[in-house]
From TrEMBL:
PANTHER family: CHROMOSOME 1, WHOLE GENOME SHOTGUN SEQUENCE (PTHR40465), DUF6534 DOMAIN-CONTAINING PROTEIN (PTHR40465:SF1). This is DUF6534 domain-containing protein. Keywords: Membrane, Transmembrane, Transmembrane helix. The chain crosses the membrane at residues 14-39, 51-76, 123-151, 166-191, 203-230, 236-257. It comes from Agrocybe chaxingu. InterPro entries: DUF6534. Pfam families: DUF6534 (PF20152). Residues 175-261 form the DUF6534 domain. It comes from the Eukaryota. The keyword Transmembrane applies.
Amino acid sequence: MASRLRIPNLDTTLGAAFLGSIFAAVLYGGVCIQSFIYFRRSKTDRIYFRAIIGALWALDSLHLAFVTHALYYYLIKNYSNPLALLSLNWSIMSQVYVTDLLSESLEASVSSSYVPTGSDLAVVSHNIFVVVLIALTTLLTFSSGIAFGILGWEEGTFARLHNISYLMYTSLASAVAADVLIATSICVSLSRSRTGFKKTDSMVTVLMLYAINSSGLTSICSLACFITYAIWPLEFIFIAIYFCLSKLFLNSLLAMLNGRTSLKNKVTLVTGDGSFNLSTNVSSKLSSQSASTKAVDYPSFASKDMYAMDNVQKSPTMAITVNRHVETSSAV
């Protein structure tokens, strides 16, 4: 009977998992660097949010530890036993829980209609239906992923995972749906904040691209994992991609947080305080005329915090004041 067992192809099993762990380690290095930058720059952020970022970094470190242990088990401890690849090691399943917890913790803040874009959290959508829909897809992703991990323990082998493959498909598909909903709701909310001013509207476009890029990268990764698992369920290609999924989520979040300062500077350069006054030009024109009494109304504009990053949910406002200057000149 043992001779009938198919020995796994090392290129598409251990080779793929090994490459995936290398990419995961590189992404973890990016997480560490961005976390260091965040804690140096985020002195004004609320302490509970800083604590959440620290907890997410700790979870990501634990995830890499599980990945390393899994590779050590298959590559070192069972170096001369390729049939060990048929069984599920405890650490390979444990990293599923951590990935689920990490990715859903990042999406949970958005599903409650918030996304970090300033020193506070800016509202993504005022539509309760959209918020509930994002929350439900996020919950579906989390619950199906955890269920896959628990039932995977009971199955015991990679070959028997096809019995619960529907849970993996549900988790990955709902993750893609949640990312698309989040990016769409952010873009719709920002598009409604356009003022008609060319320069400030261009900043709205930049923010929309930030949202699309952040959600798009993780969506592509989830979709790639979905497709590779459907095509090669007995290979480790989908596992290699899955190793990188949580780190892409965290890198996207930290990149958005660390990019707030540069975005604020760009907005300041575009809008400044938005104020200008026409009194000098009008007064000079009035002084050159010989009318005995002239009354002129002219506007003075002062835009207030157009696209303030700390409070995106407020619509851009513009205060208009009318100054009335009366100059009297006597004809000589």
